[in-house]
Write a structure and sequence with these properties.
about 130 residues, alpha+beta, 5 strands
């Protein structure tokens, strides 16, 4: 039943958030995490001169992914490459506004995890 649950659509909370910041550009990038996992989707939102480091322990992975891993004998790297592991949408937010953005999204009923940070680099996603 869990695998038959339709994909979550994030349009409404994201549009509401962006409307609150019409003048200030607090969001630098966005990525809907679909096939290809975090690494294969977040990198598309990055310029060539930065990387994103993601702490893979920043959220609890839903049990369905542990089931798939165990039953399919899939290693951790492959799981992160293929599945979203419970993270459906990523916002890259300017650090000064991160707390404000988190509060706004939580007020609209979203669960928010601070996953990592942007550093100088070459447009890669680094999972740690």
């Amino acid at each position: 039943q869990v695998l038959l649950t339709p994909t979550r659509i994030y349009t409404k909370p994201i549009v509401q958030l962006l409307r609150r910041y019409r003048v200030k550009h607090v969001v630098s990038g966005m990525a809907h995490i679909t096939g290809g996992g975090l690494g294969g989707n977040v990198n598309r939102a990055l310029p060539d001169d930065v990387d994103v480091t993601i702490n893979t322990r920043a959220w609890a992975v839903p049990p369905v992914f542990e089931f798939i891993k165990r039953q399919g004998n899939v290693d951790d790297d492959e799981m992160m490459r293929v599945f979203n592991m419970g993270i459906g949408f990523v916002l890259i937010v300017r650090p000064f506004f991160a707390d404000s953005v988190q509060r706004q999204l939580e007020k609209s009923g979203e669960t928010v995890h601070v996953l990592g940070k942007v550093i100088r680099g070459t447009g890669r996603v680094r999972l740690k």
